[in-house]
TrEMBL record:
Descriptive protein name: UBX domain-containing protein 1
Subcellular location(s) of the protein: Cytoplasm
InterPro entries per UniProt: UBA, UBA-like_sf, UBA_UBXN1, Ubiquitin-like_domsf, UBX_dom
Domain UBX: start-end pairs: 208-290
Presence of keyword Coiled coil: yes
Recorded name of the encoding gene: UBXN1
Biased composition (Basic and acidic residues): 86-122, 137-177
Keywords, sorted A to Z: Coiled coil, Cytoplasm
Superkingdom of origin organism: Eukaryota
Domain UBA: 1-42
A Pfam family per the record: UBX
Cross-referenced SUPFAM superfamilies: UBA-like (SSF46934), Ubiquitin-like (SSF54236)
């Protein structure tokens, strides 16, 4: 019975012949265990089944043939040396040990992959926690900067108000000093009183400018119309508004109307129709009366 070589042992354990030969060659024929380690580590390689160039001699776990140098016929020194032959029971025992070794290597590999997967998951969770913490710090920094900006704006607003109050107080003090000092230092003679500077409270109020005018027009039937016009519009715009909104009267066409002011009573002429409401003294509000204009 022939000796069970390393190559045969690997084939007996279920490894393809090409892979077994490649594993033995790349591990330098250091034994079945080294070859099995290589097969376990490279079983998922895409080029694991690609063959390697086969050198001559004792490679790949086989004995040299009689035609190769160093074969039984080429070397006379070891031609008569005998080698132990394994019995069927020994061969099965060796195969069993090899299978157990393969199973052990497989378990070790699965445990190693499981540890690596756990380590990767731990690293992933750690990176996620660090990313979450960094995002939270960024949000806190933004909120802190926004709060600081609001405090700064509020402080600037308070400072501006304080400056305005101080300026008002200074102006009041200067006016009091100016007007009070001039009156006390130069009293007017009894016969010819001199001009006394007017205080701010004695200054005439500034006339307010209005840009709109509210006109109420009383119609002959007792109803009234109210409309807002621009202060610079002509009185003709009011008359046109009245003619468009006074309603139909029974008996034919509408007669042209004449506008009167209530107090002081005044009848507006055709020339007044070209004048703006502001110039006629109807701003900011006025009451006009509509009277029928007698035909000529």
């Amino acid at each position: 019975m022939a000796e069970l070589t390393a190559l045969e042992s690997l084939i007996e354990m279920g490894f393809p012949r090409g892979r077994a030969e490649k594993a033995l060659a790349l591990t330098g024929n250091q034994g079945i265990e080294a070859a099995m380690d290589w097969l376990m580590e490279h079983e998922d390689d895409p080029d694991v089944d690609e063959p390697l160039p086969t050198p001559l001699g004792h490679v790949l776990g086989r004995e040299p043939t009689s035609s190769e140098p160093g074969g039984p016929e080429g070397t006379s020194s070891n031609a008569g040396e005998g080698k132990p032959v394994l019995s069927e029971e020994e061969r099965q025992e060796q195969t069993k040990r090899m299978l157990e070794l393969v199973a052990q290597k497989q378990r070790e590999r699965e445990e190693r992959e499981e540890r690596e997967a756990l380590e990767r998951e731990r690293q992933r969770r750690k990176q996620g926690q660090e990313l979450s913490a960094a995002r939270q710090r960024l949000q806190e920094d933004e909120m802190r900067r926004a709060a600081e900006e609001r405090r700064r704006e509020k402080a600037e607003e308070l400072a501006a108000r304080q400056r305005v109050r101080e300026k008002i107080e200074r102006d009041k003090a200067e006016r009091a000093k100016k007007y009070g000092g001039s009156v006390g230092s130069r009293p007017s003679p009894p016969t010819e009183p001199g001009p006394v500077p007017s205080s701010p409270s004695q200054e005439p109020p500034t006339k307010r400018e209005y840009d709109q005018c509210r006109i109420q027009v009383r119609l002959p039937d007792g109803t009234s119309l109210t409309q807002t016009f621009r202060a610079r519009e002509q009185l003709a715009a009011v008359r046109l508004y009245v003619e468009l909104h006074r309603g139909e009267e029974p008996g034919g066409d509408q007669d042209p109307v004449q506008l009167l002011s209530g107090f002081p009573r005044r009848a507006f002429s055709e020339a007044d129709m070209e004048r703006p409401l502001q110039e006629l003294g109807l701003v900011p509000s006025a009451v006009l009366i509509v009277a029928k204009k007698c035909p000529s």
